[in-house]
């Protein structure tokens, strides 16, 4: 792969085709592919010319790689390239996440220290419902590893890594035989204090490789070399549980890519906002958990920054779900390492702080047992999809409601070559309305308002309840459905503006291409700052950074494009949890250790409004990040115009239903429909108006105005003054 971050200076000229430029024999081509529940989004970027080509195809849930490879071929054809000419492909996937949520993991076994086989069952005695004595605890029902498959060996290592009871190889082989007879597909190896001395785990791994060839192995010191037995055991077991099926998908995907593009560098989005190699993802698939929505936050931040706004709330509404993130000052916030869980299981891997709810274009509307209208979380998915897609769906979905309200034209082109069947949508919504005793319009408005309020509530939880005032942010609305709901959501939360990126349905794919290569490694050290051996800590960092440097070497990242960051998890002695603190730059010495302790105390005071100067600061973990800086995606400016949009930008004016007046009574208003590719920078649109494009539809409600930015983004002003 050509070294990233070094654009060539060859002369280019435009062929006249949108997003395609030629004039050089060698281009640096990168592709981002984001697989969603309904559509697979693709973006091709030429880093030399800045040209961008986007595409969208229906997802294939049974085997996501089918849609991915089909989309890649079609994308390259649209962009005047070939798959073999692609230098790098970055992929975001929800395969690992879905395995956990659907409880469809592999049959898993475990080998652990004698007396500790039930750690993953006991947990930490936390109860989801404090006062209920009759409840299924999520980490128990079902448990990741059935008790009959949790086997023990008589060994013991104690701090600082001393062997008290040596490992018996014959005992390990006997465990392997039992697991073989049980037909397990994966084995988790979790021994006490292996993060201090992995000798026994390494020996067990070697024996299992001999005795159980082809079985996926998950070794705790390789997956998460940190203290806290329950979280480490749970993470390692989950890594094993998802390992075989995730690995099978990645190998199938990688093999299909090799057939098309044998020299293309292939990376996957990780849950920490960085990327992974295929080998890294196969050995540690837990790093892919919740990685799918992460690219959306990265892309949303880039869109906000391009529009001139740093602090953004990102709203990515797809066909099945809505992903919400809050990024103050364009900073991606991370979850606390001990607050990261999925499906009730503890997962001690770094994750971007985001929330996902079951609210999307395919969210199904229904009448519950009490006779009330409900929307989501069940979805029509990619197949058959909403009724208006004309693919056999009969249940009413959120997109059907938008079609009934007139916000999507029957003649509009949809992504994936779909044609809008408004009559099917009206029939589906009408049947639901009959059950509720409501007419067609009332039912459609009710569905839209409920889905909007679900997203408003989720944004409030992730902003207001975490100390952020939505009025200080801009809402970046993207995904296929985000621009349909963005303005109404912003009004409810008093967010002053909505930013709709140039390619809202492909923004997550753009986020993949805007992500840097990122490799993380960590080590538990458990020392107190005043007496800590700075030389020993520096040696640990040097060892961690050597591994990251090797990974960047394999990616052929130029020295000028490398960045190494050092962080430490610190706490006061006696506290149960840590805060993540940056380590002072330069080689770590005694002064650096004291500066690290002071940085922790300042962070603690900022987070909790007090500090304990009489207590010693404990350094628990050291973390190293090796980052390969990638070129940002910079969209070329569109043609400039004046405030009045071109006459040919209006493709049709037709009645659309909007809530009007103080009582928000729904009624029809004559609404112009604009073709987005005909709008010019500087154009101002006054609501009501609707902007169409292949991958999304933007609603500009009455009382709002919108302006088109030089890069083609649309900013909707939803303040009271805008409607005056």
UniProtKB/TrEMBL annotation:
Per UniProt, residues of the Hydantoinase/oxoprolinase N-terminal domain are: 30-211
GO molecular function (one): 5-oxoprolinase (ATP-hydrolyzing) activity
Give the Acetophenone carboxylase-like C-terminal domain ranges. 532-707
Hydantoinase A/oxoprolinase domain location, by residue?
232-520
In terms of domain of life, where is this protein from? Answer: Bacteria
> Which Pfam families does the record match to this protein?
Hydant_A_C (PF19278), Hydant_A_N (PF05378), Hydantoinase_A (PF01968)
A biological process from GO: glutathione metabolic process
Any one cellular component term from GO for this entry? cytosol
Give the protein's recorded name. Answer: Hydantoinase/oxoprolinase family protein
Q: Which organism is it from?
A: Baekduia soli
Provide the organism lineage as a comma list. Bacteria, Bacillati, Actinomycetota, Thermoleophilia, Solirubrobacterales
């Amino acid at each position: 792969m050509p070294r990233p971050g070094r654009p060539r200076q060859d002369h280019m000229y435009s062929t006249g085709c949108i997003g395609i430029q030629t004039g050089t024999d060698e281009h640096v081509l990168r592709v981002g592919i984001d697989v969603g529940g309904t559509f697979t989004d693709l973006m091709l970027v030429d880093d030399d010319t800045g040209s961008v080509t986007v595409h969208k195809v229906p997802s294939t849930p049974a085997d996501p790689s089918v849609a991915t490879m089909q989309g890649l071929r079609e994308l390259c054809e649209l962009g005047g390239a070939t798959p073999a000419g692609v230098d790098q492909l970055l992929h975001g996937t929800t395969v690992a996440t879905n395995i956990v949520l659907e409880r469809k993991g592999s049959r898993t076994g475990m080998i652990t220290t004698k007396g500790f086989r039930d750690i993953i069952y006991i947990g930490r005695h936390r109860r989801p419902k404090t006062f209920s004595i009759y409840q299924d605890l999520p980490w128990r029902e079902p448990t990741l590893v059935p008790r009959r498959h949790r086997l023990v060996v008589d060994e013991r290592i104690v701090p600082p890594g001393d062997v008290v009871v040596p490992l018996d190889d014959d005992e390990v082989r006997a465990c392997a035989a039992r697991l073989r007879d049980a037909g397990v597909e994966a084995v988790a190896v979790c021994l006490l204090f292996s993060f201090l001395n992995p000798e026994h785990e390494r020996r067990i791994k070697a024996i299992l490789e001999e005795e159980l060839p082809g079985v996926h192995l998950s070794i705790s010191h390789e997956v998460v070399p940190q203290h806290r037995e329950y979280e480490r055991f749970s993470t390692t077991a989950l890594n094993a549980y998802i390992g075989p099926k995730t690995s099978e998908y990645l190998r199938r995907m990688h093999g299909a890519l090799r057939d098309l593009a044998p020299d293309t560098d292939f990376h996957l989005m990780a849950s920490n906002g960085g990327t992974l190699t295929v080998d890294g993802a196969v050995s540690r698939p837990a790093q892919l958990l919740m990685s799918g929505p992460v690219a959306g936050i990265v892309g949303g931040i880039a869109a906000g920054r391009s529009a001139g706004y740093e602090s953004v709330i990102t709203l990515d509404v797809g066909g099945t779900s809505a992903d919400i993130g809050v990024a103050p000052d364009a900073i991606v916030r991370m979850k606390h390492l001990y607050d990261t869980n999925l499906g009730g299981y503890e997962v001690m891997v770094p994750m971007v702080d985001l929330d996902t709810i079951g609210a999307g274009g395919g969210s199904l509307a229904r009448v519950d047992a009490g006779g009330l209208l409900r929307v989501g979380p069940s979805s029509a998915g990619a197949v058959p999809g909403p009724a208006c897609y004309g693919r056999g769906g009969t249940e009413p979905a959120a997109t059907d409601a938008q079609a009934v309200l007139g916000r999507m034209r029957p003649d509009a082109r949809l992504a994936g070559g779909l044609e809008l069947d408004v009559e099917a949508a009206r029939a589906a919504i009408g049947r639901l309305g009959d059950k509720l005793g409501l007419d067609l319009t009332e039912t459609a408005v009710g569905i839209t308002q409920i889905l909007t309020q679900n997203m408003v509530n989720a944004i409030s939880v992730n902003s207001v309840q975490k100390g952020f005032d939505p009025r200080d942010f801009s809402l970046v609305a993207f995904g296929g459905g985000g621009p349909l709901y963005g303005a109404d959501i912003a009004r409810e939360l008093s967010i002053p503006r909505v930013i709709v990126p140039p390619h809202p349905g492909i923004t997550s794919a753009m986020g993949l291409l805007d992500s840097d290569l990122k490799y993380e490694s960590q080590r538990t050290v458990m020392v107190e700052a005043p007496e800590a051996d700075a030389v020993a800590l520096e040696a640990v960092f040097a060892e961690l950074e050597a591994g990251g440097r090797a990974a960047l070497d394999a990616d052929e990242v130029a020295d000028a494009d490398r960045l190494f960051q050092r962080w430490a998890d610190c706490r006061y002695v006696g506290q149960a949890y840590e805060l993540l603190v940056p380590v002072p730059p330069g080689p770590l010495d005694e002064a650096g250790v004291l500066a690290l302790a002071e940085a922790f105390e300042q962070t603690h005071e900022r987070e909790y409004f007090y500090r304990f100067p009489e207590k010693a600061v404990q350094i628990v973990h050291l973390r190293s990040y090796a980052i390969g800086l990638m070129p940002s995606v910079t969209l070329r400016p569109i043609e400039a115009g004046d405030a009045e949009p071109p006459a040919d930008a209006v493709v049709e004016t037709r009645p659309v239903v909007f809530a009007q007046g103080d009582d928000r009574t729904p009624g029809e208003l004559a609404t112009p429909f604009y073709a987005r590719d005909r709008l010019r920078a500087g154009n101002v649109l006054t609501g009501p108006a609707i902007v169409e494009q292949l991958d999304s539809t933007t609603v500009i409600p009455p009382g709002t105005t919108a302006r088109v930015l030089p890069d083609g983004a649309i900013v909707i002003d939803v303040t009271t003054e805008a409607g005056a």
